[in-house]
Amino acid sequence: MPESPDFSGTYTALVTPFLSGKLDLLSFGYLLSTQEGLEGVVIGGTTGESPTLSEGELEILIQEAQRQRKDPDLKIIAGTGSNASAQAIHRTKVAERLGVEAILLVAPYYNKPSQEGLFRHFSAIAAATRRPILLYSVPSRCGIEIAVETVARLREAHPHIVGIKEASEECARVDSLRAALGEDFSILSGNDVMTLPFMALGANGVISVASNLCPHPMQSLVRSMLRGDLARARIFHHALNPLLHHLFIESNPVPIKHLLARQRLIASGELRLPLVPLMPEHARALENTFADFLKASENLSGLKP
Fold first, then answer.
1. Domains along the chain?
2. DSSP tag of 160
3. Please, are residues 288 and 237 in contact by the beta-carbon 8 Å criterion?
């Protein structure tokens, strides 16, 4: 089996900025520039409103990320999953041609296949690419979980399946994945609030929503855990925790886009239907929580990543 690439650290699930219904590439480029120093970004994931992106738009976003990336160590991961296997294969081939460092494949949603169906789905995609693959298990959105046994079976059949984004709140899943897959398989939290407990049990990092807005505090939390400095990691966890919870006050990416626009990191918090702007009372609560985080973060300013 070839040595697995290093997919540890902090990866941002980038939002896709829109303006008047079209891609806002100026905002996209600026947001990308704020991620320098992190380990990577995911383009076209759930946070990037992948269900509403056309294939052409995903290509444009990948090309823009390649063109505007100034940090050569920043990995670009493309979300190419679909509930139609043929479509996922096509998107994966396009992303590989465009030179992404890795592929993120979400479990098929709505279809609710069996574990055998999941194995065959991911196997068909893996056979079409040599790029490293990260699976993405998110039962709350897909209605199905990729069983630990299926992950292990896929890893054995396709060594370039090198990790998983685990978007659950079940710490036992991390224990089971680590026991079944070994230390050279990357486990990345797909739920910001679970980053510290997951890493305490052996996860390698996070694919984060919050790091669109506060990349370096998230990175500091993760790096502290990777160094085994739990006391330092807890400082960042406690400062971030209320914000991390409020970023899911409504469906992601509605809250994060609202704050990014308020902070002028993107020109507009525009969403594509069926997503709509935050309810006013939720917007106020989110803004108040973020203001509290900014005050708390003043005490973190001397703590470098």
1. 9-225 (3.20.20.70)
2. T
3. no
Residue type, 47: T
Q: Are strands 186-189 and 40-43 parallel, antiparallel or unpaired?
A: unpaired
DSSP E strands: which ranges in 14-152? 18-19, 22-23, 40-43, 75-79, 102-106, 133-137
Q: Check if 136 is active-site.
A: yes
Does 165 participate in catalysis according to the annotation? yes
The band of 304, judged by pLDDT with boundaries at 50, 70 and 90, is: low
**175: phi > 0 → left, psi -120 to 50 → alpha, else beta; which?**
alpha
For the stretch 142-173, pLDDT in tens is 999 999 999 999 999 999 999 999 998 899 99
User: Residue 11: in which H helix or E strand, if any?
Assistant: strand 9-13
Supply 164's token pair: 């998983």
Question: What per-residue string of b and e applies to 196-217 under the rule 16 or more CB within 10 Å gives b?
Answer: bbbbeeebbbbbbbbbbbbbbb
Q: Which of 260, 238, 229, 233 is nearest to 48 (CA)?
A: 260
Q: Which of 11, 75, 165, 257 is catalytic?
A: 165
Interstrand relation of 18-19 and 22-23 (parallel, antiparallel or unpaired): antiparallel
Catalytic residue among 30, 136, 257, 304: 136
- Contacts with 269 (C-beta within 8 Å, 6 or more apart), sequence order: 257, 258, 260, 261, 262, 277
Decide: 194 and 203 in contact? Cβ < 8 Å.
Answer: no
